[in-house]
Amino acid sequence: MVSRLFTNYYETVSIIIFGIGFVTLLLNRNIIKKIIGFNFMDTAIYLFLASKGYITGRIAPILLEKLGDTNLAGYQAGTAVPNVQNYINPVPSGLVLTGIVVSVSFTAFFLALAVRLYREYKTLDMHEIISIMNREENKE
Amino acid sequence: MNKIFKSLNDFVNGVQDEKENVHLKHKNKKHHEKVLTERIEDIVESGENKGFNKFYNVIAILLACVIIACMIYTVSFLPSFGDPTNPANNEVVQAYIENGIRDTGAVNFVAGMILNYRAFDTLGESTVLFIAATTVIILLFKHKTKEEEKAEQLEEAKYEDKHDLILRHGALIVVPATLVFGVYVLFNGHLSPGGGFSGGTIMGAALILYNSAFGDNSTKTFFNYGIHKVIKISALSFYALSQLYSFITGANLIESIIPNGIAGNLISSGLILPLNICVGFEVACTMFGFYSLFDREEI
Questions:
Q1: What is the count of residue pairs from A and B with beta carbons less than 8 Å apart?
Q2: Which residue on chain A is closest to B68 by alpha carbon?
Q3: Residue A52: its chain B contacts at CB < 8 A?
Q4: Is the ipTM reported for this complex over the cut 0.85?
Q5: Who is most buried in A13, A82, B90, B147, counting CB within 10 A?
Q6: Is A122 left (phi over 0), alpha (psi -120 to 50) or beta?
Q7: How far apart are the C-alpha atoms of B89 and B82, rounded to whole Å?
Q8: Which residues 142-181 of B are in CB contact (within 8 Å) with A?
């Protein structure tokens, strides 16, 4: 089992990073640190996806032939096909792109919420915010 | 002196009594009458606080360890890294690479995939970005009165001359180069690595650098809230409309009038280039919008 982990070392490292992010998310009381933990988890997932798409000795999925190559017209006309053996898997690349965009969006959203919380309660500590909220509720 | 102490004592006692009353009232509620936040407060405010925290930490670490152990155990059964016979490298990949150029005209297979085969997904991504930018505007945008704006401009003018000289001269060199590079990445999305998202981010970074070097007032001469709104909404609606066109033609098996061009040329591959430009402008506006909203609550 351990030797398999060393063969799949990218995946192993990505799981460890995911764990670091998860523990950060659970143990820190500071909201900003929770958001950082969330981003760690995202990054781990990108690493995992990118490593799943990689094939040893092959290049990124962009056509090798340059403009003016005689093969290019054939590829476009459908008379010839590019060699699949030259390129890595393009599907995970597209998936990682989606993930990055979503992660940027929700990070901005979380941070905006954190700014509003700080303005309201003058603290970023979750427990303090909850106790202040309760005190205010009890006053009413 | 004693009197003062006595009155102070009474006062403190009174306050304490009041607190206790509130606390008693609070305590006398039956368990099921309390809402969740009250129960949490009970735990937080009582002496069990520390004990609970320790308990929580131990449970959290244990949970995390169990999850990570499960996942690492799963990783040990995954197919080998970099093996061409992995089940992930199946006929889908073959189809994307072999038919990509014929169908989309894009030399970059990933661009052909995300902006032609799965362009609907990318429309969703742009919408997610748009919605995120909108919610950040809702949460942080401050509608300022004219007097406040004037006061702020005066304040800004005070510091304008004192902006870092090195930053300004550096920005004069770096900003145009970054913008040009961003446009290059944006326009070559179907030919080389890059495309709308990365090019837009580079352009947004250039805008942010310009803003931090030269201040608000000079940025507002060419980029303000109105322009931001117009660019974002028109880019997203152009994207949606062009996708609508390709859906209608595709569903009815009508030949699209947009030619694919010669693969490898700058102007080729049908709708991919305009869509890349739309996404790029959308992303650049969103990035700059995030920066300026977090910085000074306006665009």
A1: 196
A2: A19
A3: 86, 88
A4: yes
A5: A82
A6: left
A7: 10
A8: none
Q: What is the pLDDT of residues B49-64, one digit of tens each?
A: 667 778 888 988 999 9
Does residue A92 belong to the interface with chain B, where contact is any CB pair within 8 Å?
A: yes
Does B77 lie at the interface with A, CB-CB under 8 angstroms? yes
Closest CA to B208 of B289, B100, B126, B123: B289
Mean pLDDT, chain B, rounded, equals 82
DSSP bridge pairs for A62: B108
> What are the residue boundaries of the structural domains of chain A, listed by start?
2-57+88-139
Please state, in angstroms and rounded to a whole number, the distance separating the CA atoms of residues B171 and B212.
Answer: 9
Of A69-83, B17-31, B64-78, give the range with the top mean pLDDT. Answer: B64-78
- DSSP codes joined into one string, B197-236: HHHHHHHHHHHHHHHHHHHHHHHHTT--HHHHHHHHHHHH
A124 φ, ψ (degrees, to nearest 5): -110, 5
Q: Which residues lie closer than 8 Å to A96 by C-beta, 6 or more apart?
A: A46, A49, A50
Mutate to test the interface with B, among A109, A116, A123, A140 (most CBs of B within 10 A): A109
Measured between beta carbons, the chain B residues lying within 8 angstroms of A85 are: 84
Mean pLDDT, chain A, whole residue set: 88
AA letter at B183: V
What is the fold, at CATH topology level, of the domain defined by A2-57+88-139?
A: Helix Hairpins (1.10.287)
pLDDT band at residue A36 under the 50/70/90 scheme: very high
Structure tokens belonging to residue B236? 């997203």
Per-residue CA distances from B178 to B74, B126, B185, B225 (Å): 43, 23, 10, 23
* Closest Cβ–Cβ partner in B37, B67, B121 for A134: B37
**C-alpha span between A131 and B157 (Å, rounded):** 42
Q: Which of B27-31, B42-46, B233-237 has the lowest mean pLDDT?
A: B27-31
Q: Is residue B34 very low, low, confident or very high in pLDDT (cuts 50, 70, 90)?
A: low
Q: Beta-carbon neighbour count of residue B10 at 10 Å?
A: 10
Predicted local distance difference test score (pLDDT) of residue A104: 92
3-class DSSP assignment, residue B76: coil
Q: Which residues in chain B have their CB less than 8 angstroms from residue A19's CB?
A: 64-65, 67-68, 71
B105 touches chain A (CB under 8 A): yes
Buried b (16+ CB within 10 A) or exposed e, B206-237: bbbbbbebbbbeebeeebeeeebeebbeebbe
Of B99, B136, B192, the CB nearest to A108: B136
